Amino acid sequence: MLNYLTLIFICQLAGEAFVVAVGLPVPGPVMGMALLFAGLMIHGGIPEDLQKVGGALLANLSLLFVPAGTGIMVHLSLLTGDGIAVSVALVVSTVATIAVTGLLMQFLTARKGSAKSDAE
């Protein structure tokens, strides 16, 4: 399982390196997640041990937000001037995420349904 945890961190590092090298305005961990996803698509599935490692990380995800929450509380005075802009950005990004997720789910469900009907 340590190998898969290392794989996750290597993908994150590769994503950071790629973003810095190319200059993309995307967070490195997001690019690393895309690289991991591409590797899993090529592999054809998720290995069982990787599922266990990912599940353990997700089960303890709230612990990973403690440093960010602490930083917000410590530097709250820096955010007071930009509170409206941050709030608008949060609402817009949340609505956009829900919309994209819904559209993608509809597309993938329709695609899966058409693949089943083609097989019959």
From TrEMBL:
Cellular compartments annotated: Cell membrane
Bilayer topology: Multi-pass membrane protein
GO CC term, one of those recorded: plasma membrane
Keyword vocabulary terms for this entry: Cell membrane, Membrane, Transmembrane, Transmembrane helix
Residue stretches spanning the membrane: 27-46, 58-78, 84-108
Protein name as catalogued: CidA/LrgA family protein
Record organism: Oricola cellulosilytica
